[in-house]
Amino acid sequence: FGIASDENFVITTTNRKEITEDNFSELVQDGVTLYLLQSVDQMLLLATKERIDFLPHYDTLVKSGMYEYYASEGQNPLPFALAELIDNSLSATSRNTGIRSIEIKLLFDESQGKPAVAVIDNGSGMTSKQLNNWAVYRLSKFTRQGDFESDHSGYVRPLPVPRSLNSDISYFGVGGKQAVFFVGQSARMISKPATSQDVHELVLSKEDF
Q1: Beta-carbon neighbour count of residue 69 at 10 Å?
Q2: Among residues 134, 123, 137, which one has the least CA distance to residue 90?
Q3: To which H or E segment does residue 190 belong?
Q4: Which residues contact 180 (CB under 8 A, 6 or more apart)?
Q5: Which of the listed CATH numbers 3.40.120, 3.30.300, 3.30.565, 1.10.10 matches domain 58-146+164-205?
Q6: Please, what sign has the CA dihedral across residues 118, 203, 33, 95?
Q7: Domain boundaries in the chain?
Q8: Which GO terms fall under biological process for this protein (predicted)?
């Protein structure tokens, strides 16, 4: 890499966890993306890109959320899809010490390439690992274990309230990915963890599936 013998450097994950002798076997797996930096908190000079490979659930290929919504007690399914996206934001902002801000924008122009639904919140943000985990179909935020780093670690389910958005995703019985693919053909998640300077972006498209 052209590093001088007297120059200090660190190797980190995309979540800015430094690779050491103690955690090497845990953090360095096949296909993992690593940063070679002068310091853990060094600002990236360029955007990095990686392709995430996982085996999607067959429902992604054959249903893409349709069944869950059409089976939603015969009601108009679109509010269920929007409720799911709002529910995610409620969960993400549940630990905010200040104002919880959640915006829903319906974009009918070509600013995003096609008409789009944008849900914007000021929650804690997700790391690259948490975004990767979000992409895995049928991986509940409450049951992720082992190598799966949850974006809601330590989160406690609120008591169920009928017909209420309380950030308990299981009430609706569907996830953010089903909601996205019911409404449209692709999803773009942009997130910045509150404790990091890095902005992470994940793109999923029905065409890729």
Answers
A1: 23
A2: 123
A3: strand 186-191
A4: 65, 85, 186, 187, 204
A5: 3.30.565
A6: positive
A7: 1-54, 58-146+164-205
A8: double-strand break repair
Encode pLDDT of 20-38 as tens digits: 999 999 989 887 889 999 9
Q: Whole-structure pTM over 0.85, yes or no? A: no
pLDDT reading at 72 higher than 60:
no
For residue 53, pLDDT beyond 60: yes
Q: Which residue has the tokens 């985990």?
A: 133
Q: What are the φ and ψ backbone dihedral angles of 136, each rounded to 5 degrees?
A: -80, 120
User: How many residues make up the chain in this entry?
Assistant: 209
Q: At CB < 8 A and 24+ separation, what contacts does 133-137 make? A: 134/176, 134/177, 134/189, 134/202, 135/52, 135/54, 135/177, 135/202, 135/204, 136/54, 137/56, 137/57, 137/59, 137/60, 137/175, 137/177
